[in-house]
Design goal:
Strand content: 25-35%
Structural class: alpha+beta
Helix content: 25-40%
CATH class of one domain: Mainly Beta
Distance between the termini: 66 Å
CATH topology of one domain: OB fold (Dihydrolipoamide Acetyltransferase, E2P)
Radius of gyration: 27 Å
Shape: globular
Length: 714
């Protein structure tokens, strides 16, 4: 029997609910439950969380934690004393296995990893559990290798060679001399594991591509892409397929589309952009409403299912934005040419068209395929000047859209949307890729104008499919979902910001978002702004793609998707295909296949984001390499059991003060309070503290900077 809990109101996000549901099944391994019984066990009364239980049960079934033994009835899948999960290695060589099947991460010593590497999916045998410790186990089977190719630096000796991987890997790769394939000592290269002899400590590998000499900009950027298994060039056959697509639009295509060529239309993008995938049109209708068109490049008209271009786009799933380049999802012929909404050219689009009144209330919406003719291409700076001065090309259209965008923004925040307007760091880079300076980019009205109308289109497209009328069941669709914050993380964040005199309300989602917006406004321009904003973002769940809609917490939208960037995001192509199918009266697609595509797209988005951060880190270290010995003011931006991270006030570059270098005391890590504390002196270094540091070491290959704390008067 289930042991009854004291009746109390519990708060859950999806991850927390998943753990709570699994706990019930683990406590009752032979019992079946449906969502109503689980709601009762967890004292859940509100309908949104009850609906979330449906989503959680389906995911646990698909992950083989549960088996569905009848319609809506689930039972724990028997697995004995084993769990499956993903390996996360540490710098010290041991690892943790992250599993949905257990409420804590499983500790695995270096000796018990059994050749498992970072990211591998493994089966782990659990040891008898000790109180107050993480569960511990050993890897008994490697179910799926995360990767078999590695990027690193070649080290050649007289009789043999090794590739020293750049990322997290406890093993160097042994390269037989005949498998070097032209790689020389000290060069960056990509190697592939070919075998791992039983008695060998190191896997055997061969060099499959030489990237170039260490320190050269192209070599290092290509190495970062290779480290995250991201391509840096297109196969010849893909480029050839793109080159076959004509720029000219066939005359018969015009007749199949709504014609917007005579409506004032323009694009607003970064000054250096070449792939313009969204345009706006606006004019006043006879009924007094403003007709605003959000026109999106019709990529799926050119990239057909089962084609080589489609396969490549799906494989990449996203464009990658490194500090000095864009690695596009589609070949340049498409991304910068055929599909790009360049000025003074007819272009094919998929559009969301709205009729709005002067208060930006939407009275009518329409979705369909169109043809447009952009009258003007604006850089953000040019559009901002029109907004600030009231003068310039297409001033009436820009000022009208700016006014409507501000109304939409106010409505969104009143409904509970959270505002994260973070300062964006960009590098001024010369032709050789060397960073000359750091530029802070702040989002202004022109950026927000585009943002609001993209959000509007994404929201209404999602509602159009996900919220059918007349009690009809919603068809399978692709949503951009964002879960509620983890309550424990939220409480921990609230505890931390109290030391600065701030606080947030955690009673309900609306109270959280309102107080979070107030907090972000209050910290603007203050020394603790970046630390608090960074920590606030860390409390939030990661947004992802799914056919199982749970809404978008950060935007406070019940329905949200990505429709507006198909040149650079594969999920937007998925949305275009589904929307076109359903507009034509097509039947709902099979959810499981599209859920797998969503999962792949989410994974590739994370991978691209990690590569982007890695390239920024490399340029930061390169930029600061000439300033060893100089002192800077900074703020403690991270605290771990191996060191404290400090972000420099002057340029937002981040480095670490290793704990081993703090010789005045023995410091212990206090995870709950984001600080380290001296055992004898009780001296405390806490997240958000202002400190002075000196740069003592830089390591470009590891993308690391080491600092030394400089006390006042030292």
């Amino acid at each position: 029997m289930v042991k009854k809990k004291k009746k109390k109101k519990l708060k859950f996000n999806k991850a927390g609910l998943k753990k709570a549901v699994l706990d019930i099944f683990y406590a009752n391994p032979k019992k079946t439950f449906n969502y109503k019984q689980l709601s009762s066990e967890l004292y859940i009364r509100d309908m949104p969380t009850k609906k979330l239980i449906h989503v959680v049960l389906e995911e646990l079934r698909d992950n083989e934690n549960l088996e569905e033994i009848g319609r809506g009835k689930y039972k724990l899948r028997s697995k004995g004393g084993y769990v499956t999960g993903t390996v996360e290695l540490t710098q010290q060589g041991f690892g943790f296995v992250i599993s949905d099947e257990i409420d804590q991460d499983v500790f695995v010593s270096a000796a018990n990893l059994k050749r498992a590497m970072h990211g591998d999916k493994v089966k782990v045998y659990l040891y008898a559990r000790r109180k107050k410790h993480n569960p511990e186990g050993e890897v008994v089977e490697i179910l799926e290798r995360a990767k078999t190719t590695f990027v690193g630096t070649v080290e050649v000796s007289k009789f043999h060679a090794f590739l020293v991987p750049s990322g997290k890997s406890p093993f160097d790769l042994f390269i037989p001399k005949e498998k070097l394939n032209g790689a020389k000592d000290g060069q960056k290269a990509i190697a592939k594991i070919i075998e791992w002899p039983e008695r060998s400590k190191n896997p055997y590998a061969e060099i499959i591509e030489v990237l170039g000499n260490v320190g050269e900009n192209d070599t290092e950027m290509h190495a970062i892409l290779a480290e995250f298994d991201l391509p840096f060039k297109f196969p010849e056959q893909v480029e050839h397929a793109a080159d076959q697509i004509p720029l000219e639009i066939p005359k018969e295509e015009y007749a199949n589309r709504r014609d917007f060529r005579k409506v004032p239309t323009f694009t607003i993008d970064p000054a250096d952009a070449k792939d313009f995938d969204d345009a706006l049109s606006v004019h006043k209708l006879d009924n007094g409403f403003w007709e605003v068109g959000v026109h999106i490049a019709d990529v799926t008209h050119y990239v057909q299912p089962n084609s080589i271009l489609e396969e490549e786009a799906y494989s990449r799933a996203t464009s990658v934005y490194l500090v000095d380049r864009v690695v596009p999802m589609l070949p340049e012929r498409l991304s910068n040419g055929v599909c790009s909404l360049r000025p003074n050219e007819d272009k094919l689009c998929f559009s969301a068209v709205f009729q709005l009144d002067d208060q930006a209330k939407v009275h009518h919406s329409w979705f369909g395929r169109t043809v447009i003719h952009s009258d003007r291409r604006f850089a953000y700076e040019e559009a901002q000047e029109v907004i600030e001065t009231g003068k310039g090309d297409m001033k009436e259209e820009i000022l009208t859209l700016d006014r409507l965008a501000k109304e939409l923004r106010n409505q969104r925040f009143q409904a509970g949307s959270i505002s994260f307007d973070r300062i964006e760091v960009k590098f001024d880079i010369d032709d050789a890729g060397k960073p000359l300076g750091i530029i802070f980019k702040i989002s202004k009205d022109a950026n927000k104008l585009i943002e609001e109308f993209m959000l509007l289109a994404n929201k209404y497209v999602a509602e159009f499919i996900g919220k059918p009328t007349a009690n009809k069941k919603a068809k399978t669709f692709v949503y951009r979902i964002h879960d509620k914050p983890d309550p424990d993380k939220l409480d921990s964040f609230n505890h931390f910001i109290k030391r600065f005199g701030y606080g947030i309300q955690t009673n309900n989602p609306k109270a959280v978002s309102d107080s979070m917006n107030k907090l972000l406004t209050n910290v603007e321009g203050k020394k603790e702004q970046n630390v608090i904003e960074t920590l606030a973002i860390r409390t939030m769940a990661r947004a992802e793609y799914s056919t199982r809609n749970i809404g978008h917490y950060g935007l406070s939208f019940d329905y949200y998707t990505h429709f507006t960037s198909p040149i650079r995001r594969y999920p937007d192509m998925m949305v275009h295909r589904l929307l076109a199918r359903y507009l034509d009266g097509g039947r709902s697609v099979v959810a499981q296949k599209w859920e797998e595509m969503c999962h792949h797209s989410s994974d590739m988005e994370v991978r691209a984001s990690n590569a982007e951060r890695s390239s920024v880190k490399y340029k930061q270290v390169e930029f600061m390499s000439d300033r060893i010995g100089e002192e800077f003011k900074g703020v403690i931006s991270g605290v771990t059991n191996w060191g404290i991270y400090v972000e420099l006030e002057e340029n937002k570059c981040e480095g670490m003060v290793p704990l081993r270098d703090l010789t005045d005391d023995f410091y212990e890590f206090d995870e709950k309070n984001y600080c380290i504390i001296g055992s004898h002196s009780h001296k405390r270094y806490q997240l958000g503290d202002e400190v002075n540091v000196e740069i003592v070491r830089t390591n470009l290959q590891k993308k690391q900077m080491d600092f030394r704390l400089v006390e006042n008067g030292e």
